[in-house]
Structures are given as structure tokens and as C-alpha cells.
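re: ur question from earlier - yeah i can do the single chain one, its not a big deal. heres the input i used so u can compare w yours
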Amino acid sequence: MSRIGIKPISVPAGVEVTVADGNVVTVKGPKGSLTKEFHKDMIIKCADGVITVERPSEDKLHKSLHGLTRTLVHNMVEGVTDGFAKKLEIVGVGYRAQKQGKDLVLNLGFSHQVIVPETDTIKIDVPDANHIVISGCDKQEVGQFACEIREKRPPEPYKGKGIRYEGEYVIRKEGKAGKGSKK
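and the output i got, formated as C-alpha cells:
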């Protein structure tokens, strides 16, 4: 039996969950609303403030979908109540970020500024010039948006300059070993 799949999901106060057609789940809460369609074989039930996910058989496909479906529904409930956030750090001399209206303006050592617009579901916050906080209610969307910002200048291995996730360890390389020695 799936250890994760069998756990019931408790629905907090102020959150409304509806299951339509047996596999389309809509979760509405204080942070927003999320709708997702799941595999048609998964059995999703919502009663008395508790959501349960069941599988019809012991097939390998159903076993693998069981825990996944439960986790995705749990993330939807958590997203509309608390939300999700990813923190990014900018490392490098002259590298900085600032917020202009609804746009994130990045100076990353290019000859131009990199401008990233804020979307309807994603909120960008810049507490200081070297930190960016991306937040929203959809965990996958927040992670994807953070990845796209990190792609603008990923950390390089020699000096460690670039955009990295908070707490990310960048493996550093040594420079040229034979520098300055003559034979």
C-alpha cells in the first residue's frame, strides 16, 4: 500500500474543494483558485472536510499514480492557504535586481538590462538588490518561473557569479594550474 497515497488530506477552514466528473478538482481559498484534471482511474472523494484518494487496482500504473495524485491535491490545498515561495540570490560585482512597477529589472553584466514581467498568478518581490522572492499559489508555476529567472545568468564554476537558489551550493573549479611556471 502507498504510504503517501493512503493519508487523508484535511481541508482547512475557508477552503472550498469541489470534485467534478470524478477527476477534475477545484480548490478555492484566500490566496486564489486552482483547478487540475487528474488521471481518470484515480478515485478522489471529498467529504466532511477530508479528501481521500483511492486506486481501483494493484496495477503498477495505479500504484504510481496513487501517491502522485494525493501529493498534487495536497499541494493545491496548501497553495491556496499559505502559498509557495522560491528565493533567489544574485552573486557578482555589479549584478543587482530592482522592481520597476510590475517588472523585474536585472543588471547581470550584459550590455543591456534584462526585464522580466510579473504575471497574474506570480508575484515578484525584491527585498534588497541581491535577493529575489517569487511567490504564488501553484507550486509548479512558482518553480518554473524561478528556473526561468535563474536561466538568465546561471552560476559559473570559477568565481560563482550569477543567479542561484538560496542555499544552493555551486561546485567551484580551480583555475589554470600551470600559470606562471616555466620549464
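The chain is about 20% helix and 35% strand. not sure if urs matches, ping me
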